[in-house]
Design a protein that fits this description.
This protein is 62% helix and 10% strand. The chain is α+β, with helices and mostly antiparallel strands. It has a single domain, classed as Outer membrane efflux proteins (OEP) (Up-down Bundle).
Length: 485
């Protein structure tokens, strides 16, 4: 054999080992584990959805624009880019992807190259007591090593699949965090605007109470009123003034909450707010319950977590079977650097090993039982998540319906209370009204107006809850996926 032919033989031996190992690995995974059937009971329609068309007003991707508030839209868009919880969730995606690559590396052979130079000298003493100068030895080597575990039973493939599914779950987890953040921004903003409305209402009520107090003082000066009437109205006025500080506290706290959600200190955030009367109430239809399984990110997250647990079961089962390891090494070794890469300095070695577990104190069986139990836990969690999602939508639909009815009735209460108060105030100034009637009508109006703001807030928050229960916006990609099922 010529020198070049011998050199090619050494390199071909190592390459052949790698190619054969990969081919055997790709034909592995003969033990498959199917995802257990969750046996879900999906209703045909929501019981509180009404008779509207299922696709009449399904949530849009930018669902918050339906409230017709530029400031809210700006806050939503800012939160999507700078919210710290979302940023942390994105970092977890990067971690999960890296872990998937680490786990998947076991499916490929490992290759390593090494160059070594050593110099040694033997002892100059002999057993007879004679001495000599000793012998110096120089050795040079350059080699390429490869090793591979044939994944004949699918242990490494299932482990890589589990890591990949976990990485997918981290993406749905990011969507869950984003949806929760968007709902929190909307609710905090509506709380800010509602607090502003309630403060304005309280100031109007204070002005009304002051007018009544002036009228009672005039009656007292005219001899037709009493100190008791004056004291009672002063108490009403003091109560109205005392209601303002808690409202200002609520306003400040929700502004600070918005600042946190957009990742800025409160001192750097300015919220103009406005009035709930200027915020639109978008109409939302929930679609079909079967679509919820695709739209809700928490359901999709639990689904892929179940898939990851199932792959872990397959990997744990494969550990009961033998592991086959192939190793190979080839290169050059010489005592002279000049002769290192000559054909006669070439060497190679190939080895194959099989290891069968016999007794490990129950470690493999315990690991298999653990993964099976984890799979069953995630199966039950998946079922509960789906059932809870249906309940969330139904609860939100009921809240939207009842809050709309509450708001309609409360507006009637305010209109009637305002009319009664105006008449009582006119009669008081004419000297024909009973002071008890005046006190009752103004208190009723004050409470009704404050309750109206709270009813408006409840309706908007119910709509936000419905968007959140439906999984946020439904994009065209998700719609196509639904049609394909």
């Amino acid at each position: 054999m010529s020198a070049s032919a011998r050199h090619k033989a050494v390199c071909a031996a190592v390459r052949g080992l790698v190619v054969a190992s990969v081919a055997l690995g790709l034909s592995g995974c003969i033990l498959t584990t199917d995802i257990p059937d969750p046996a879900l009971q999906v209703p045909s329609a929501y019981k509180d959805a009404g008779r509207t068309s299922a696709t009449a007003a399904t949530p849009q991707i930018d669902w918050w624009r339906g409230f017709k508030s530029r400031e809210l839209t700006s806050l939503m868009e800012e939160a999507q880019t700078v919210n710290l919880d979302i940023a942390a969730a994105v970092a977890r995606i990067v971690q999960a992807d890296a872990q998937a690559r680490i786990t998947g590396a076991a499916l490929l052979p490992t290759l390593s190259a090494g160059d070594q130079a050593s110099r040694s000298k033997s002892s100059g003493s002999s057993s007879s007591g004679l001495t000599n100068s000793g012998r110096e030895i120089t050795n040079f080597s350059s080699s390429l090593s490869a090793s591979y575990e044939i994944d004949f039973w699918g242990k490494n493939r299932d482990a890589a699949l589990a890591a990949s599914e976990t990485a997918t779950a981290s993406r749905f987890d990011r969507d869950v965090v984003a949806l929760t953040t968007m709902a929190a921004v909307a609710n905090a903003y509506f709380q800010v605007v509602a607090a502003q409305d309630r403060i304005r209402t309280a100031n109007r009520n204070i002005a009304s109470a002051e007018r009544i107090l002036d009228a009672i003082r005039q009656r007292l000066n005219a001899g037709t009123g009493t100190d008791l009437d004056l004291a009672q109205q002063q108490s009403v006025l003091a109560n109205q003034r005392a209601a303002v500080p808690p409202l200002r506290q609520t306003l400040a706290q929700n502004v600070h909450a918005l600042a946190t959600l957009v990742g800025r200190p409160p001192e750097m955030v300015r919220i103009a707010g406005g009035s709930l009367n200027n915020i639109a109430a978008p109409r939302v239809t929930p679609g079909l319950p079967s679509e919820l399984l695709i739209q809700r990110p928490d359901i999709r997250r639990q689904e892929v977590r179940l898939a990851a647990a199932t792959a872990n079961v397959g990997s744990a089962r494969a550990q009961f079977f033998p592991s086959i390891q192939l190793t190979g090494q080839g290169g050059y070794q010489s005592a002279a650097l000049a002769a290192l890469f000559t054909p006669h300095a070439a060497f190679f070695s190939l080895a194959a090993g099989l290891t069968q577990p016999i007794f490990d104190g129950g470690r493999i069986q315990g690991n298999f039982d653990l993964t099976k139990a984890q799979q069953d836990e995630l199966l039950q969690t998946y079922r509960k998540t789906v059932v809870s999602a249906f309940a969330d939508v139904d609860n939100a639909l009921v809240a939207v319906k009842q809050s709309n009815e509450k708001l309609r009735l409360q507006r009637e209460v305010v209109a009637a209370s305002r009319r009664a108060f105006q008449l009582a105030e006119q009669q008081l100034r004419a000297g024909t009204a009973d002071i008890v009637t005046v006190l009752n009508t103004q208190l009723t109006l004050f409470q009704a107006e404050d309750s109206l703001s709270q009813a408006q807030l409840a309706r908007l928050q119910a709509i936000v809850s419905l968007y959140q229960a439906l999984g946020g916006g439904w994009g065209p990609t998700a719609a196509r996926t639904t049609d394909a099922l």
